[in-house]
Design goal:
Layout lengths: L8 E6 L6 H11 L7 E7 L4 E7 L2 H4 L2 H7 L4 E7 L14 E5 L2 E11 L2 H10 L9 H10 L6 H11 L2 E8 L4 E5 L8 E4 L5 E4 L3 H6 L2 E5 L4 E6 L2 E6 L8 E2 L1 H6 L5 E2 L2 E2 H15 L6 E4 L5 H11 L7 E3 L12 H11 E3 L1 H4 L3 E6 L6 H12 L4 E6 L27 H8 L3 E4 L2 H7 L7 E2 L1 H4 L6 H6 L12
Parallel strand pairs: 14-23, 17-20, 20-21, 21-22
Antiparallel strand pairs: 1-4, 1-10, 2-3, 2-4, 5-6, 6-7, 7-8, 8-12, 9-10, 9-11, 12-13, 15-16, 18-19
């Protein structure tokens, strides 16, 4: 167990139903809350003016009846839940971002991380562009706003030509809501539909289920979609080779009831557990998962191994973030606050615990100790993904490589450090087999260091397009 920090979630709607857009967004963003808890926001429009509410905190903290009333009655809406991968956590850096420019207003919400944001920001500042935040999202907004393309899809396409990194975007202007997915397809984005030509954009399909929308399809890598009075239109852009969806969407981030690029998250995790049982069998009395993302894999392991499945850890779902000072005792108390052991399930038994990943290893050490203190005869651990050996550069807040326990130590060394009787990981080829059928491939950078782009080269790329009118 990482814990890896979640990414962000985006949502947008062009609404022709009797359901209020702000109410729809409120429930959808709660469905996406697992993707970010640092802040939340919504912007709505009647086609003339944009109204924005955003703040730090959970969706239920940010939106009260008064705020929702102020946003009601509007046709267009985009929303965001944030985990900070760039920029400090404050109200100014919370999304959506709303800007006014020559064509009216531009609202934008972003999930992902730009590799060359610093180079682009320097170039924009050199020509006099003023920044109000330190988010890479603002770089995207300025690139779109300064474009002289004839229409918004053209402006977005020119932005995409100079940006390197991961992004799933929802964008709104006076007439349309737009969805954009990076040309590598690293971050997910899907389309839903309701009656009367109402279309939805969402990071995950679970938000569509909450509001009663029907899943239509995923936005393709490099695709721009527009939703407006003329319905749904697609503007495909060139895809980049060597890319694909982040594998950690299936391993950890996405909700199990979501489907991403044609693959059920629950089924992929269940298959990963089955494959894990085949490649790393062990004699045990009970199979259990670390709540919540590893439960499906644990069920798959039990199914394939014939070892009974049961719960051994209970998760406290009613605590917020724990702000603690470094120190072993404090870390132990934080984990014990979040997880507790069912003593009757483990006492005198050989326990096989399935987890989705090990990042630093700190929490795994504490959990193994908790199980032994509760009377477990043996503690074995199986991980439903390969060792995390490399940092992510595309929106997951992984530690630097020196802090990754799997980067510099053998599996046997990690086993000893965690105090386990045995430890095994799912090989990368088996993880890829578990998500077989994805329509756009996979990013495996955090496991094998094979990133979908040359990071050293892409970080330096800052050629701004289009040029100013005077430069044409």
């Amino acid at each position: 167990m990482g814990y890896l920090a979640e990414e962000c979630g985006v949502f947008g709607v062009y609404n022709n139903t009797a359901i209020d857009s702000a109410q729809m967004g409120y429930f959808a963003l709660q469905a996406l809350q697992h993707r970010g808890q640092d802040g939340a926001g919504m912007v709505v429009s009647d086609g003339k003016h944009a109204a924005l509410v955003k703040n730090i905190g959970l969706v239920t903290d940010v939106f009260h009846p008064g705020e929702l009333d102020a946003l009601s009655g509007k046709k267009y809406m985009i929303g965001h839940v944030r985990y900070a991968t760039s920029g400090a956590t404050n109200v100014l850096n919370t999304q959506p971002l709303v800007m006014r420019y020559q064509d009216g207003f531009l609202a934008l919400a972003h999930n992902g991380h730009l590799v060359n944001s610093k180079a682009l920001s320097r170039s924009l500042r050199d020509i006099g562009v003023l920044f109000q935040t330190d988010m890479d999202t603002e770089v995207l907004a300025h690139l779109i706003a300064r474009s002289h393309a004839a229409d918004m899809p053209g402006k977005i396409a020119e932005m995409m030509a100079v940006v390197y990194g991961s992004y799933a975007l929802v964008i709104m202007d006076r007439n349309h809501v737009y969805g954009v997915r990076d040309p590598w397809g690293i971050r997910p984005l899907c389309i839903g539909r309701m009656e009367n030509g109402t279309y939805i954009l969402s990071s995950e399909s679970c938000a569509l289920d909450v509001i009663g929308a029907q899943f239509v399809r995923d936005v393709a890598p490099g695709e721009i979609v527009s939703i407006g009075p003329d319905g749904l239109r697609s503007y495909p852009q060139p895809q980049r080779s060597g890319g694909g969806i982040c594998l950690f969407e299936y391993v950890y981030f996405a909700r199990p009831d979501s489907t991403i690029d044609g693959v059920s998250v629950y089924e992929s995790r269940f298959r990963a557990g089955q494959l894990l049982a085949q490649v790393a069998p062990v004699e045990a009395d009970i199979v259990a998962g670390v709540p919540d993302s590893a439960l499906s894999a644990a069920q798959g392991y039990a199914n394939a191994s014939g070892i009974p499945y049961g719960d051994v850890l209970v998760k406290n779902r009613y605590i917020g973030r724990t702000f603690i000072q470094p120190g072993q005792r404090a870390r132990e108390m934080a984990v014990r606050l979040k997880l507790s052991v069912l003593r009757g399930q483990v006492e005198g038994k050989r326990v096989l615990l399935v987890d989705d990943s090990i990042v630093r290893g700190t929490n795994s050490i504490i959990i193994a100790k908790m199980l032994r203190n509760a009377g477990a005869k043996e503690v074995h651990m199986r991980i439903s993904s390969p060792p995390v050996r490399f940092p992510c550069h595309f929106g997951i807040n992984t530690p630097n490589q020196k802090q990754l326990i799997g980067a510099g130590q053998s599996v046997e060394d990690v086993r000893k450090l965690l105090g386990l009787d045995s430890l095994a990981y799912l090989p990368l080829e088996k993880l890829e087999e578990s998500v077989k059928g994805s329509s756009c491939g996979y990013c495996t950078g955090c496991f094998d260091g094979h990133y979908p782009m040359n990071l050293a080269v892409c970080r330096r790329k800052c050629a701004l397009q289009p040029k100013t009118k005077e430069g044409r």
